[in-house]
Amino acid sequence: MIKANDFFKILGVFLSFVFFFIIVVVVLFIYSDLPQSSTETYIRRYIEKDLGLNVSFQTLRGSFYDTIILEDIVCYESKEENANEIISIDNAEIRFNFLKLILHRNFFQSIHHIVIKDLDYYILRDIEGHWRNIRSSSTKSVSYDLENQFSGKIYVYNLGLYYQDSHGWKDADKGVLFQD
∠ at Cα 98 (93, 104), nearest 5°? Predict the structure, then answer.
């Protein structure tokens, strides 16, 4: 027959083993590639399917519990093969509150701020005079109600604007630039 004292010793060893096993699994999960790859898959699917945009990025890193960093982001005007590059970002850092994300299940409201470094925006007009801008190919309508609004701050460091006009002004009236 097992004495109460022996029972508690066995229970203590068993619970210690379970606790140690859980700690090892959590540490391996945190240091594995699983959080990064699942986050990258989710972001790519959201951009391509839900938003219908042609966006690529090279690297995704961060702690995934308060920071996501996307590097070498390029956004094209459409999903066509030879689409023009409209936006190029060297580095975008998204800081968010993990508790808000878990409690509210709304990523946009959990974002504290976004830091964008080296943003280049290309303003293009083709030979026919059409402005080239980003077009969505999604048939889904994304709701922009108060629940999905971003209320954080956006910081942009080193913004470059590039203007290319293949159409030109031709014979259009330019108006009087300076008057007395």
Answer: 115
